[in-house]
Design a protein that fits this description.
four-stranded antiparallel beta sheet, elongated, seven-stranded mixed beta sheet
């Protein structure tokens, strides 16, 4: 089956930087859009950034100019470079990918990673 694994989270001071990675593995036929979501305690999950298979990107207003999403199609990996971090960026960050897998009737399905904790101290 398909799995997404996030890495790169941690604790940083306000103004610092982190880079998150998410690698997809398994019986993958193709990967379309990929993205990052985040969820803070007591809040609903919100979209942070997305990137298409061709490299087109969009961002939540709250992270524009600070975060950059990118992908390496050869490695089935998506990245999120986070600069100028603020305490309000503290959340669990989840990787998302629209994947068509072998053995599933060639139906495109959303997959989710387990999440990685990002904590920004003031």
């Amino acid at each position: 089956q398909v799995h997404l694994v996030e890495s790169g989270g941690g604790l940083v001071q306000a103004g610092g930087s982190l880079r998150l990675s998410c690698a997809a593995s398994g019986s993958i036929f193709s990967i379309d859009a990929m993205g990052w979501y985040r969820q803070a305690p007591g809040n609903q999950r919100e979209l942070v950034a997305t990137i298409t298979s061709g490299g087109s990107t969009n961002y939540a207003d709250s992270v524009k100019g600070r975060f950059t999403i990118s992908r390496d199609n050869a490695k089935n990996t998506v990245y999120l470079q986070m600069n100028s971090l603020k305490p309000e960026d503290t959340a669990v960050y989840y990787c998302n990918a629209d994947i068509t897998a072998y053995g599933m009737g060639r139906v495109r399905t959303k997959y989710w990673g387990q999440g990685t904790q990002v904590t920004v101290s003031s």
